[in-house]
């Protein structure tokens, strides 16, 4: 049976949309609350932008699950495949030493509501969503006992991870959730599982030239924090802070930075709509600020410029 929180989450999206729209009569923007984003109170998230090859990411996930002997569940439902090869979809974990991996899968939400189906999830300390189309995860598990049990993994201090579609499902707003095509950013499925609240997560960011696609989502829902993650790159979320790991970049779309300053200046260079983070950078999603720039403060794009005049004799 579909659970009440499933309907409440959908209602919350509608309410947030209502209070985060532009006033079409005056052109002025209604004040919105951009402090609603938060990470899990317990446990960790590993959110990957797709095409994961860097073993650092997999190793971190296994470590957060409790090590090689920890019970881990893989959910490959986003793939849409008629037949699932358990060995193949779990190989990325077993090849790195994970010894207790169970594949759990159905397209039937009624089956996902049964005690027998959720039993492996109740024992798991780690769970991984594979790639494909994120709406399939919602159709199969949204509002069921399976969705509830997955969240309990976090509550007991475990880790939820996922790549590509398995990244987007972890946000509250389901970008590219249209059943017809993945090029529609705001389609017929809009509710993610909200492990990272008030957020919209996109993937394959730079490789597929998607770096501007989240702009329309944040324009429509300015309370959301937009996070775009490139391939072979991940954010590891613990509490309200995440660290970037992997080989490429993560883009941050914060509506607060789109407002002009007192002098009409933009907070981002050239009126940009996002800025980039790389491996080693840390970011607080609730405070919406970079807490650490890898490589030192010289990378801080928000720091006051150094106006010291240095004389150079030639």
Q: Which descriptor suits the 3D outline? A: globular
CATH level 1 name: Alpha Beta
Strand order, largest beta sheet: 3-2-4-5-1-9-10-13-14
Tell me how many strands there are: 14
Number of helices: 8
Q: Please outline the major beta sheet.
A: 9 strands, mixed
C-alpha end-to-end distance: 79 Å
Return the domain count.
1
Q: How would you describe this structure to a colleague?
A:
- This protein has eight helices and 14 strands.
- Strand 7, helix 8 and strand 8 form a beta-alpha-beta unit.
- It has a single domain (4-22, 30-292), classed as 3-Layer(aba) Sandwich (Rossmann fold).
- A nine-stranded mixed β-sheet has the order 3-2-4-5-1-9-10-13-14, sandwiched between helices.
- The protein has helices at 4-18, 55-65, 86-94, 115-123, 134-141, 145-155, 165-168, 214-220; strands at residues 44-48, 71-75, 100-103, 126-129, 159-163, 171-173, 196-203, 225-229, 233-238, 241-246, 250-253, 275-277, 282-284, 289-292.
- It has 314 residues and is of the alpha/beta class.
- Helix 4 packs parallel to helix 6.
Top keywords for this entry?
314 residues; globular; nine-stranded mixed beta sheet; Rossmann fold; single chain; alpha/beta
Topology:
Layout: H1 4-18, E1 44-48, H2 55-65, E2 71-75, H3 86-94, E3 100-103, H4 115-123, E4 126-129, H5 134-141, H6 145-155, E5 159-163, H7 165-168, E6 171-173, E7 196-203, H8 214-220, E8 225-229, E9 233-238, E10 241-246, E11 250-253, E12 275-277, E13 282-284, E14 289-292
Parallel strand pairs: 1-5, 2-3, 2-4, 4-5, 6-7, 7-8
Antiparallel strand pairs: 1-9, 8-11, 9-10, 10-13, 11-12, 13-14
């Amino acid at each position: 049976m579909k659970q009440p929180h499933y309907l409440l989450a959908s209602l919350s999206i509608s309410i947030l949309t209502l209070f985060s729209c532009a006033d079409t009569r005056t052109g002025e923007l209604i004040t919105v609350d951009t402090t609603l984003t938060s990470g899990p109170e317990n446990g960790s998230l590993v959110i990957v932008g797709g095409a994961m090859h860097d073993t650092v990411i997999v190793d971190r996930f296994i470590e957060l699950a409790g090590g090689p002997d920890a019970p881990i569940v893989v959910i490959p439902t986003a793939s849409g495949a008629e037949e699932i090869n358990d060995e193949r979809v779990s190989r990325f974990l077993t090849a790195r030493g994970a010894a207790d991996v169970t594949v759990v899968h159905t397209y039937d939400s009624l089956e996902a509501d049964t005690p027998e189906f959720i039993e492996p999830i109740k024992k798991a300390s780690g769970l991984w969503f594979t790639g494909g189309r994120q709406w399939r995860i919602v159709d199969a598990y949204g509002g069921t006992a399976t969705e509830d049990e997955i969240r309990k993994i976090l509550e007991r201090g475990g880790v939820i991870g996922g790549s590509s579609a398995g990244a987007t499902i972890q946000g509250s707003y389901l970008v590219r959730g249209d059943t017809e095509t993945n090029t529609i950013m705001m389609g017929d499925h809009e509710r993610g599982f909200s492990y990272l609240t008030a957020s919209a997560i996109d993937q394959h960011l730079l490789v597929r030239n998607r770096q501007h696609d989240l702009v329309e989502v944040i324009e429509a829902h300015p309370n959301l924090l937009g996070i775009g993650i490139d391939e072979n790159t991940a954010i590891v979320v613990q509490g309200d802070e995440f660290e970037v790991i992997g080989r490429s970049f993560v883009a941050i779309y914060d509506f607060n930075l789109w407002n002009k300053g007192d002098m009409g200046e933009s907070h981002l260079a050239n009126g940009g709509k996002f800025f980039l983070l790389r491996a080693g950078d840390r970011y607080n999603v609730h405070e919406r600020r970079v807490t650490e720039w890898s490589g030192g403060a010289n990378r801080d794009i928000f720091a006051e410029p150094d106006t010291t005049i240095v004389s150079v004799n030639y």
